[in-house]
Fold each of these.
Amino acid sequence: MKVLVIEDTQDLAIWLVRFLAAKDISADISADGEDGTYKASTKYYDAIILDINLPGKNGLEVCRDLRKKEKDVPIIMLTSRNSKDDVIIGLESWADDYLVKPFDYDILVARLDALTRRNLKNKSTAILKVWKYEMDLEAVKVMDDKKVVHLSHLEFELLKYFAQNKGKVISRQELYEKVWWEFDGDFMFSKTVDVYIWYLRKKLGREIIETRKWFWYIIQ
């Protein structure tokens, strides 16, 4: 599971990300509403943990903007406000759940699990758009105008990581850590990533992944 934490209290955000990592949940951090809206709009996340009191654009506005963009990602709102009216306002902004600070981290994870399971159940498919292709995450296949492009397991996982981080320049080391997991060689000298990127370019088109410098890559 990958989540976005939109929280301007740095200590809380860092501790929360560390706790989630211990539960095998990866997380990105955003410290304000504008940046959080941008990341949530341009990257794929299984869920969003959203503080209400944010600088610039508050969490209620972020939630409404994402729903207007037809982003149906599960959203859990965090706030220090616990009155009935505050809860109603949060839920009327199309949040899926509401937690009052201070909260139990285990309860937060349990609610994340419940919301993501429900979200997958309500979706017939989980689709990522990549250039002219569609990635079906549930069926584990890539389609070009309904025609299936056959990828190996590692090719699919590599393309999925790029798709979930569109517009982000990604290092070769990060790809080894996030896609290969147990790779214990020297990423500076290994050609494994280069070979698999070559495979993807051969099957999907050279334009799909751009090389930046020597060890950095990006998918637009």
Amino acid sequence: MSAIPEASLPISGVEPIFRHLDDADVPWQKVRRQQNSDGTEGTVYEKWFAFSPDPQYLSLLAKYSPGMVVRRHGHFSPHIVYIMEGGATFGDRWCPAGTHIELPFGAAFGPIVAGTDGATMFEVMLGDPRSWGDQSELFDTALSAQGAVALPDEPLEFPPWLEDLRSHWND
């Protein structure tokens, strides 16, 4: 194990950054949506608290409406999810409030289906936060079970150093 170069710490001018849920400079963004069987729109909203280019990382709060379905996917980095309120099924596993999920780089989970009370999740991606997916038939099956239809992605405000890759998704 190599020694930590303590002589270079702390770094001059680097200070903690504090955010609060109601910070006006951290807006909620609608990132996923679906048409529910009753005609309402299901959504996932995210609030990106920290989005860094070097090293890359993202921390966010996500709110899933009841029954919202998100495709099976992984990220181009390790990903941590903590269920704060409500719950969701990840693939075949029910994850109530208090569940911590570690998604190592190269692993996928889902589809994700929010429970009847929806779900609020705190998430951290420790690198490139963009996603990739597989087994799209599982997404189709989960949507069908909910009587829902996926709607097109909403435009998002990505940082200038990160290209939006969502257009490569067909589902």
Amino acid sequence: MYNDVIKEMEKYAEENSVPIMQKRSMTFLCKFIKKNNIKRILEIGTAIGYSAINMALVDENIEIVSIERDQDKYIEAIKNIKKCNLDKRISLILGDALNLELEGKYDMIFIDAAKGQYLNFFNKYKENLVDDGFVISDNIEFHGHVENYDKIENRNLRQLVGKLIKYIEFLKENDEYETKFYKVGDGLAITYKKGEVDE
């Protein structure tokens, strides 16, 4: 059943130009969740619910809170989550993540929303992370634009990629957090508090 819904979502995403997580990245992330026994996840950027559903299927005890600001995608995500009977474990919030106040602590925060806001998302929600938790940022290579920043001619794209580069520098130079970068899919960054996670 789940496989059919996931395939439908992949087809829908392709036909409607909805950015969903690349398959290799999704597999990598699900293995990471399992290996680190992650149970409570905050996702910033639901889109149509693709990654939330895949993450929830790793373990029946996983609970996810996911935020989406686009109403059409939010409605589509609700439909997909209900089709998978995961509405008891995945809670969706319609709204701008930067304008919300969430209580509670999470084992993992997954950032996969507006690329230009990654730094703001990180700073806003880091207090919602358990001490030995992880922040995972997707699309850190952003279709190769980060590496080829000097060749970007479009002004808006340059501005957006510039903000993403600042976020990457923030992660690399941070005294409080350690970050590992993985060249998987469109690039993933896994961040955790120094001294809190066993290698």
